[in-house]
Amino acid sequence: MLIVQKYGGTSVGNAERIQNVAKRVLETQKQGHQVVVVVSAMSGETNRLIDLAHQVSKEPDSREYDQLVSTGEQVTIALLALAIKEIGGKAISYQGHQVRITTDNSYSKARIKKIDADFIRKDLDEGRIVVIAGFQGVDEEGNITTLGRGGSDTTGVAIAAALKADACEIYTDVDGVYTTDPRIVPQAKKIPRISYDEMLELASLGAKVLQIRSVEMAAKYKVPLWVKSSFNNTEGTLVTSEDQQMEDVIISGIAYDKNEAKIAVRRLADKPGIASQLFAPLAESNINIDVIIQNISADGFTDLTFTVPRTDLTKALRIVEKTAKEIGCEKIETDEKIAKVSVVGVGMRSHSGVAAKMFQTLAQEKINIMMISTSEIKISVVIQEADMDRAVKALHKVFIET
Ligand code: ADP
Ligand code: ASP
Ligand code: MG
Question: Residue 226: inside a domain, yes or no?
Fold first, then answer.
């Protein structure tokens, strides 16, 4: 079999852990498989680099930022290849641009366009373990790009898809996908099998165990995707196509996201074209808007409130202020101390009453809901960040533990 294994930051967090990964991949190869390993930077390293960038620059230039933050992975690939060789294995490490992981040029959220699979296959056929840097890509002009936080998951799945690998295994510090983050709710349960759709919702709603794009890509190319622990050999979670059994479960998980901020534009003229004038320049600047609410107005004016990624708040605010000058409004307010909490389940398609139960649970906890958004298989609420842990615990108790 051809197996792609991805090891996250904690799993390569120090020399000893890198040696542990070396042992695991060599063992996999000895069982008769061809192995490609994708690694993240050592835990904390990407944050350290981001922090350094902000120390020298208020709004870092995007090309240089990616050039910088991609370096964490260069360290771990070389260390892992060295550690594999040290215990008698054959290995070779590559950075993203060396295996030609070609992306578009949207720095910090680049999308993979193409991977040179033949290049990797040649090494595999010669018996090497191929170690590839996660997170990194290169655009058509040769500039280094990165795939967004948690992007090594996507590198792993993209390589598995390009090589038509038999499995893609994501090794991390938890032994699978849980009904919610086990760090917040110790009673969280491991989900043995989860559909691509549900995992996609959980990931897009903040469950950082898998990056969204990795799940999108796994679904598109039907890559069997496992989430497992790098510290033990328990079964893990299989992310796969939906089956009947999965639909019987109404709520499969609860996710939270602290990475958004809210912008409220007060007293805008309530007339056709206003929303488009406000949001078009944000879209042009590649800023993803998430939840949007527009208030009902009586006197010809309305309020528009929406959320953007916290990291884009300064940029978004500048754009909104500029538009507001053209279209007029009373004031613009921002709030960074918000969190989005969501309940997810494909069973919601055929069961009603989930929203009512969710709102009732939050009311009992005296948690104020600021925004609500729904889709076929999820309900999300935006609340104060300080209420987040309590909300997740209470919803888990009501929807999953009982
Ligand atoms: P890595 O560095 O290996 O990529 P991450 O920190 O990105 O690891 O992702 C693993 C973390 O995701 C876990 O430690 C856990 O706290 C968090 N997490 C959030 N939601 C879930 C969930 N539903 N199931 C499992 N882990 C989750
Ligand atoms: N090192 C990158 C990050 O911290 C990519 C990853 O770990 O997946 O976001
Ligand atoms: Mg991760």
Answer: no
Closest CA to 351 of 255, 239, 252, 237: 252
Residue to substitute in 76, 135, 149, 174 for testing ligand 1 pocket (most ligand atoms within 8 angstroms of CB): 174
pLDDT for 123-148, tens place per residue?
A: 999 999 999 999 999 999 999 999 99
Residues 23 and 124 occupy one common structural domain: yes
Say if residue 262 is in the same domain as residue 381. yes
Q: Could you report the per-residue pLDDT of 348-387, keeping only the tens digit for each?
A: 888 889 999 999 999 999 999 999 999 999 999 999 999 9
CA distance 169 to 176: 11
Ligand 1: centre distance to CA 265 (Å): 34
Q: Which of 5, 208, 212 to mutate to test the pocket of ligand 1 (most atoms within 8 A of CB)?
A: 208
Residue 351 CB less than 6 A away from ligand 1: no
Euclidean distance between CA atoms 218 and 98, whole angstroms? 23
This prediction's pTM: 0.91
Q: Note down the domain range covering 259.
A: 254-399
Q: From the CB of 174, is ligand 1 less than 6 Å away?
A: yes
CA distance 365 to 359: 10
